[in-house]
Design brief:
globular; 11 strands; alpha+beta; homodimer
């Protein structure tokens, strides 16, 4: 399998080709750094953009929710979908207003979702979702029951048509503006996890697992 | 003017009504806490979700970009649009896999954009965009010129149909699960700004303005 996606009419980055990436490594790294994606779909021509938790497994991306969700019910029928993940990396303060910008990484996937219906497969995917949020956590949990599995719709989409757009250039000013006595630079931005907080209703003697504490030291959305 | 938006067929939150908000204060606070929105539109039925910088002024939201942008060229014609802003606030680790979740705040606006063509209005909006990124910065910059203004397409959309969805509940487990000796809690997540970095080509003697330094102490995406 090629490690690059072939740009298509819809996945090809139209503007600023220098920012475009079609290789699996770049696209998957952006996907793997996030927790929330924005899923786009159109119902009777009306576009909707719904934020939802997602995760990647191999060449698929998955998301899930209530079986009653409008978004899931529409997409499980095989409607066209665009799934976008974006990380803000910096505010870019140039010497002119025109060149003010943001450094960011975004990935866009086009395709059609399929519903995962096999109970065993569904359970395995849910395990991966939970372990994506907190590595190793699944083993500690009260097992998922049949009613819960039934109430959950799980969608997967094969990643066959995708592109990334990355701006990491910092300040780019017009040549003649570099001589101006105007400060320019970047303000880096990132997602961080704070210290875990215990639920107020822990059973007596229940201790926080070590792997949860380690969140506090992890930067999220890593490059 | 009412301070609440009337839910419509497309803006009404379909699932988990407890999380739905239609009041201006909640929706505008979510908009004002972000820098990147996800703009949804459909071209020939194909949905696209494009991340872009945005800002709010009164009852309008604005975004801009190159006059050659596919997204802007499509939307300036008055196509239906859905603009979504989302902030992740916490990873929610429950006692069961089923109740693992994310705390978040999101706002969704439905409407049609209009192109701002008046040069004076355009300039005033660009000033607000720059000052949104860095308060007071516009006054320090090399002025925008006619060529730059022409190369920029600025879209505005009146906020008339909007909703917010907020999950801030932390852990919600099934009643019988609270007795289990399983740790549960939340890992708070937030966007932070790091210390500003000078551009490598500052003119000799150029100093960083004080208001830029203060970024380092600001949490972004405040609640």
């Amino acid at each position: 399998m090629s490690s690059d996606f072939k740009p298509t009419a819809r996945s090809r980055v139209k503007r600023l080709h220098k920012r475009a990436h079609y290789d699996r490594d770049t696209i998957y790294a952006i996907l793997d750094a996030g927790f929330i994606c924005h899923v786009g779909y159109a119902i009777d021509g009306q576009p909707y953009v719904t934020p939802t938790a997602y995760w990647r497994e191999g060449d698929h991306v998955y998301w899930h929710g209530s079986a009653a969700s409008r978004m899931l019910r529409h997409l499980e029928q095989g409607a066209d979908c665009c799934l976008t993940v974006t990380h803000l990396d910096a505010l870019v303060l140039a010497r002119s207003g025109f060149h003010h910008s943001l450094d960011y990484r975004s990935a866009m996937i086009f395709g059609r979702a399929h519903k995962v219906t096999d109970a065993g497969e569904k359970l395995a995917k849910m395990e991966n979702f939970v372990n994506r949020i907190a590595p190793g956590r699944w083993a500690d949990l009260r097992p998922v029951n049949k009613k819960e599995l039934k109430a959950t719709t799980l969608l997967g989409m094969e990643i066959t048509e995708a592109s990334a757009k990355v701006r990491a250039a910092g300040v780019i000013d017009d040549d003649e503006d570099y001589a101006l006595p105007i400060w320019a630079g970047v303000v880096p931005v990132r997602m961080v996890a704070g210290a875990a907080r215990d639920d107020g209703r822990l059973a007596k003697g229940t201790r926080r697992p070590q792997n949860i504490d380690s969140f506090a030291h992890l930067g999220l959305a890593p490059k």
